[in-house]
């Protein structure tokens, strides 16, 4: 396991950007949080619109976007650090125009879209004027295995006819279009069976059945996960995104950066929860003579253990980002797999410990912890469940040994 | 650690009762569950009322109640097994009239109430005609340390004047009266500082400020946790429950049985989640040739580990119940402390694993798992956080060793 | 998971026996321990012989033996409790004549031996006049899968000719005979491929190659694990033990009781290590003003957690023993599997924690902890590695669910 | 938790050095290993002497030594990587002249020794002509708390008179001198109570009582841990090392680099054990049709989890080394504390898993795993037990929060 070249040093300008983001979140966004926990997201849209405008004015819009799309053109290490800073707020990524799945959709439209697709879909999306969704996960088949995908797109003259039943289509409610993964060549090899399509959500064959009730909340607009039906959904063949049969390849492209983005967001959450844990320990008096939770050795141990764990997790993600920046995603493959499950696990442990130390307060929505506890539980599931990543990474490592490669 | 006497054998009649309960829940209650996840509890009241009537007709009302109060008069081991059976449904305890905190309130009214108190509060409560709440936990002080309690009751002629700020007063919304723990003798020794009072909720000095939003839900009626204020709340001195200064002693009394009740309820939850885990593993196809999650060794390991853990947890709770039945709660003290944190931990692990294997479905409210995940998280906090029990149990064991008692 | 019948109550006589054993170990055996850690076992034989004589005089020889063999004729629950008491000393089982593998060998000779075999082998073995060993595990094949067994016994006239390479033949050094598992019918179904044979160790075809150096020690006599060769080893056909092809069936018979025996021995070890942990915590001063490790919350937590874990483990083993006593080993199968890996894990954690709290002293052989740490590590491996038991138990449970049996 | 500057890139020359070391160990040292497990270390000395000569010829002697002492003058990051490479062999550090405690003793003699001390003790020590030991840990007091130190040095004219009872004085057997930590100013503040002295082992007041039997082995020469007595041990005042009262300050100095050295050695062990785990999984056939342990999902998961853990551990140590190199040990303090307990834990888990997968073979000394299992257990104890580091790190972090520093 060699690691003899690595440099995470970032520029002073970048450091200033990060400070700016933190200040903005603390001053302008955190005060909105309690409202966010108690009102439908849709009702917050006007206020969020104003904040987005401020972000643009500050020149911080789209940290992940190339400059030509009005973004900051950051490296992945830099974008990772921005994602971490934004992750401290559940509204951060949305306000800065780098929220999933739009960020990923922008990326693939940018790389694989036709000029017309870019004009019509990419431009307004990158500008935050519209939203999109990504319809891949199916209700009835295991997302971990692409050979099981059942939704189909059949060519019929100048059109494709799409049929399928998808869910966990994040933000379908209010989206202008969906990118949909559909089987086009059932008999092709697994990697070449499916294609991606752009489907405007006003297409009569596309239907948002419901916003799935998740952990007690159905959500609305961007903060929702839709169950959608494609029923004899006809779209012009120009809406094919990239080459036919290349759906999984394209999906693969967005995976590396998306992973860094998520893991660093989780680390932002870890940072926030850890801060809360420590502050609560310092404040919570447990005896008449003023002894606090911070005086308890078991709490001190917990703080030390989580500190060590977060530090390690953070280094591993920055390292993976650095590898992608320098050597490409393929070489960083094992690292990208490893951070997915390990950082998600770290986040769950940090949130759980922070909640626990807050006692009853932690169970309530008077702090952010209960929100993080229930909604960030998804991290060990989406983008590949822990088990899937562990199996495939373990298999790959063992094969490398069998081949004498390690 | 001697254990040379123990007999859990139960009667055939009891076994039939348990079967009856299970069948009733499966047929009559489970179909209500999705509605319960999606509608305010208050809207379900009519339907629940009908089901309660059926429970009474079957002679299964009040499994924990002595026969003189119209209950089944079970031993603690037996009641534990009933609690386990009921625990499989989030509506079980409510429907059978043994829900917290009413069950505990009934117990102490029965043991310490005056005849008048019994007539006025206990009778309708035991019959399920009214509900009650228990106001102990304070917003500003650590519940783990009774010497920190700040709410006061000051005698003024024939009345007590109560002032205090409480929360996590379960089911305050819709309750007819509250039992409230208030400091009556601030200078007394810790164990004798506080007293219990019966406070009708229509007293003008009692105010339900809000139903606390917990894990995204404020709830209503019985399924709610209130933040309540006692402001110059005057009650007649006849509303003192038990002797003045005996508040903590009385609270102590309900602890043993309450613990068994909770732990067995948690084991009912474990049983249900474990069933779902296994069934999902058997059903979820992960390859084209029909291999399921159940064919995965890692899943098999998880199933075996959780099975072993649940078995052990269950034996430990039954053992503690048996000890209380036979030797009294004082001798069973260490066992009662141990099951609190260990069984809560087991439940959290089982729920987490069941949710994980359900993937996206597990995050949604289409199954019960997301409900259990977010709301049963409280088990490691209420009735004494894990840390509190571990410290006090550990301390006690170590002291026993120091004294040569073990 | 029903558990509605269970009675662990034991007789007063039994309780007195247990006390007697404990006193004997504390007074007569513990003083030998440091010598045992520093000298070859063989050098201790004279002294151990005297102690065995005392055990016989007290009428405590062979707790697991039926009365007709000069033993105590205990139930499995009772024998389990004796095994726990003996387990506190590494010499306990040997001194009381119930050490593995002799105890198991006695059991199968008693059940399946011919009259002649009983006369010649069983009698002196049960009396402790000779020792035996059990040659099953092979150097080159995975013991977890009996279909891989390679050693063979081929009939040749009135003899069998044995060839094979075995190891972990416990106590081969100094044994009078070995029971050996050999393939007799390579083409039979897995369960019927092998047979058991009695092989006197002075047979010229039997050779003890070495006492395997395990965790730094080769050991000698009973405290050793041999690597043995069977090379054209001819034995009369009368030395077949039980029916040809029934080797695995016979092995199966000794499994249930053997498991209880081991698990309770491990619990004896847990008890001893836990005692040491608590005593050390009480004694070890860590500040000038006399604060000890016992005053540290993190240590208190550890004590509480291990206490809860040991209690649960203990109940689960007694429960399994009780099930075997009452319902037979087949019905108790899942329980027997579960205790193997869960109790072994508990023991490892308890020993590790006790060692840790002893610091440098724990690493030295000045206490028993370092001995337990290194040698009892085997518990997660012998008699089926954790992984093997978890896979098979998990598979069985999942199949039961598929069949609607649970 | 900012981390915006970090560069681990190393030179090509360094990379070649590491390759050279690995090849040397594999070809020249590994073949000695089985002998090392079975014979007293003292008997290996002649052969080891020849290998040391080869190391010197290759110019690889003393990777941690400054060039003026005949070493390689590496940075801490570089030295860390060398320590990792050497850590794969239990003989590595000794053969390259960077074994504890000599490496630390050299460091403090170099920094604080007088010219005469350097001439007499440092020179031959750095050249590997003599060995030294470090007498700090006491038999009767907790090493974690320096205020408890009891051994004394009292000035008497031109001499100091030393009295004390120490143990875990590594390599005392065969050492030419000891550096001893003794209380010189009992009433001074904790940090200024003790001083360091150079004590030749042929001083009549110095006695090696025994080589402590650790995990079954007393060891000899360098591979031993001594219990030593200082009894009216008179040494000239010139043998004071550094200033009187500065003993702990000096000890502090060697802590940072020593920590990196140890943690990277542990990572070398992790690498070796992980390799063995993977190779065993690939080789071990578990079914007739050739399925191996590597085909088992549970093993794949374990491989993936340990891979992720080792990667993270490695990054955290290199990061700490880089911080010491660039910002000094004081600023890196929290990182240095965190890696101690987290990497020791990782190593224990990796070794345990590797041993487990080797089954019976893993318990034997036919591989290195049993050696690592028993002797490297000390890592969680020496240089400060896990608990000590967790408490002090946790306390420090919490205090920083209280001061608003984080």
From TrEMBL, chains A, B, C, D:
GO terms for cellular component: cytoplasm. GO terms for biological process: fatty acid beta-oxidation using acyl-CoA dehydrogenase. Gene3D superfamilies: Acyl-CoA dehydrogenase/oxidase, N-terminal domain, Butyryl-CoA Dehydrogenase, subunit A, domain 2, Butyryl-CoA Dehydrogenase, subunit A, domain 3. Residues 245-398 form the Acyl-CoA dehydrogenase/oxidase C-terminal domain. Keywords: FAD, Flavoprotein, Oxidoreductase. Its cofactor is FAD. InterPro entries: Acyl-CoA_dehydrogenase (IPR050741), Acyl-CoA_Oxase/DH_mid-dom (IPR006091), Acyl-CoA_Oxase/DH_mid-dom_sf (IPR046373), AcylCo_DH-like_C (IPR036250), AcylCo_DH/oxidase_C (IPR009075), AcylCoA_DH/ox_N (IPR013786), AcylCoA_DH/ox_N_sf (IPR037069), AcylCoA_DH/oxidase_NM_dom_sf (IPR009100). GO terms for molecular function: acyl-CoA dehydrogenase activity; flavin adenine dinucleotide binding. Residues 12-129 form the Acyl-CoA dehydrogenase/oxidase N-terminal domain. Residues 133-232 form the Acyl-CoA oxidase/dehydrogenase middle domain. Homodimer. Belongs to the acyl-CoA dehydrogenase family. This is Acyl-CoA dehydrogenase domain-containing protein. It comes from Leptonema illini DSM 21528.
